[in-house]
Amino acid sequence: MSTPAEVVIGANRKDLEYVITDPDGNPVNVSGGAAYLQGVPTTDGVTKTLNVAGTIVDGANGRFRWAGLGDPDVYVAEAELGEDLDTATWNLRVKFTDAAGKSDFGAQFELAWAKPPDVS
């Protein structure tokens, strides 16, 4: 498996944009729907699970956004990595529910959250 993309805790400029597609790769109209970034850690000793609502940014073209991935109040805080870890990885999927209440999941991917450098 490839190295996961990394987000530094406290860095709030990185957003995640995700497009919901049908089996043929065409965007699904998500107007009136909802999506959640859901996942579990794969790093031993880390227990925080994620279930964060996304924002529709282009409903007709299936596009959702999760803003400020480094925001420790929403995603992962330094304390959740403990004293011994500088970084931890999560297996994630986007769960989408359409306006009719039917749901599906996107492909699994990985993100790593890292503590910022200690320059004190």
Estimated structural class: mainly beta
Tally of separate domains = 1
Shape: elongated
Distance between the termini: 35 Å
Radius of gyration: 15 Å
Secondary structure tally, helices: 0
What are the SSEs and their pairings?
Elements lengths: L4 E4 L7 E4 L14 E8 L8 E4 L1 E4 L4 E4 L20 E11 L5 E3 L3 E6 L6
Parallel strand pairs: 1-9
Antiparallel strand pairs: 2-6, 3-4, 3-7, 5-6, 7-8, 7-9
Explain how this protein is built.
The protein is built from no helices and nine strands. It has 120 residues and is an all-beta fold. The strands form two sheets. Strands 1, 3, 4, 7, 8 and 9 form a six-stranded mixed sheet that branches. It has a three-stranded antiparallel sheet with strand order 2-6-5, with no helix packed on it. Strand 7 and strand 8 form a beta hairpin. It is 0% helix and 40% strand. It has one domain: Immunoglobulin-like (Sandwich).
Name the features.
120 residues, mainly beta, Immunoglobulin-like, 6-stranded mixed β-sheet, 3-stranded antiparallel β-sheet
Q: What's a quick, concise take on this entry?
A:
The chain has no helices and nine strands. By secondary structure, the protein is an all-beta fold.
